[in-house]
# Entry
Amino acid sequence: DAKTTQPNSMESNEEEPVHLPCNHSTISGTDYIHWYRQLPSQGPEYVIHGLTSNVNNRMASLAIAEDRKSSTLILHRATLRDAAVYYCILRDVRFRGSSNTGKLIFGQGTTLQVKP
Amino acid sequence: ETGVTQTPRHLVMGMTNKKSLKCEQHLGHNAMYWYKQSAKKPLELMFVYSLEERVENNSVPSRFSPECPNSSHLFLHLHTLQPEDSALYLCASSQDGTGSYGYTFGSGTRLTVV
# Structure
């Protein structure tokens, strides 16, 4: 799976929008862009994923650049409960048992702090 | 509750003990995974099961032994562990192994080896 680059940390104020960037310049045509977050002392939680078009769900929005080499996770109104590590991960639409293709491989992610 | 249940939540074991971690999902998923998360480190993928068949073993020491008796249950059998094996062990499941679907994680088992 192609690699992603995220800032180590970001800060936000409560009730303001947050834009979390992710660069993936070597993305292939079969890679989905996945976002997960991990709150302290919990397992990761699926946030959103997309392939080419922007996606919205109840948790967040995913904006994907036209060339797909970058994406942005948008939290529309940050709350204190959104403080977490956010991971941007590329996953191939295919699954190959003998390699990392298709599997969820985590990097360091972005630690988001939300200030009251 | 995410739909993936892990037990126990906390486990303390001696280096000569044998214990098992359990993971259960009733989401109808066909792929299940074990991850390890050590302090200040990214999650490490340990084992992958797809349709109850182990398809991945990421160079995990033999003192960790996975078992997947059916698509709803996954175990991690532990024996003669080392203190450096202390970590959060996370189970996850997905519809299948492809990138089309997200993973659902359990809350993890916090393991301490003494």
Observations:
- The CA atoms of residues 14 and 79 of chain A lie 5 Å apart.
- Chain A has a mean pLDDT of 90.
- Strands of chain A lie at 9-13, 18-23, 31-38, 45-50, 55-56, 61-64, 70-75, 84-92, 110-115.
- Chain A touches chain B at residues 30-32, 34, 36, 42-46, 49, 90-95, 97-98, 100, 102-109 (CB under 8 Å).
